[in-house]
Amino acid sequence: MYAEERRAAIVDAARNAGRVRVADLAEQFAVAPETIRRDLDVLEGEGALRRVHGGAIPLDGFEAHEAALPDREVENAEAKRAIAAAALTYVPASDGTIVLDAGSTTGALASALVQQPRAYSGLSVVTNSVPAALALTAVEQHTVLMLGGTVRAVTQATVGPTTLELLGRVRVDVVFLGTNGISAGFGLTTPDAAEAAVKRGMVAVARRRVVLADQTKFGHDFFIRFAALKDLDVLITDAKPTGSLASALSDNDIEVVVA
User: Is the entire prediction scored with pTM above 0.90?
Assistant: First the structure.
């Protein structure tokens, strides 16, 4: 079992039971207690759990609701199309490689790429989004690598150890990320641990990291953090961030593009 997979399972166990113990987890996963303690340290650093004596508990006060992809596709659809159009500027024009995250705004980018098939010759797209992969196969000039794995019905995204293994074999020019929330204090977040692990892997394999997020995501924190603001290069959105988020983006030298 991969470390990311084990940590996702630990988060799920803590969420379901309300508390996990180091000794129980070490026995369950057949690893040393020191390995579990390191896992808990990592998960606490990511904001997924809080360490307590002998184990960990899930953090309270974070959003957990996750709307289904078809519902999200119709929310703020005009803003998402505008963000996608602006994101085209960051797609390599010739023989480029990108990772396209699952989600409604990244899905709008997939649609935009389909509508301009000759503008991006020799483009290779790696994605864990089933709808995006199917849409992009309509363009003969594009090479599409669909990451295998378990499909989450709510997001129509593949997750799990197979997804992470395949993702770890690639290096790309740009990753286009979606997010459920973005805040000054907690960075980029999502409700699901398995999906967070894949997003984290996407951040790791790209030379440039671009997040696509409309203004409804500002100031919201969900259960699992998958990237800190310092991990990003560009935010493309539909409204200028304000307050602490604007300051944090500036402090981290993140380019902000308002579509």
Answer: no
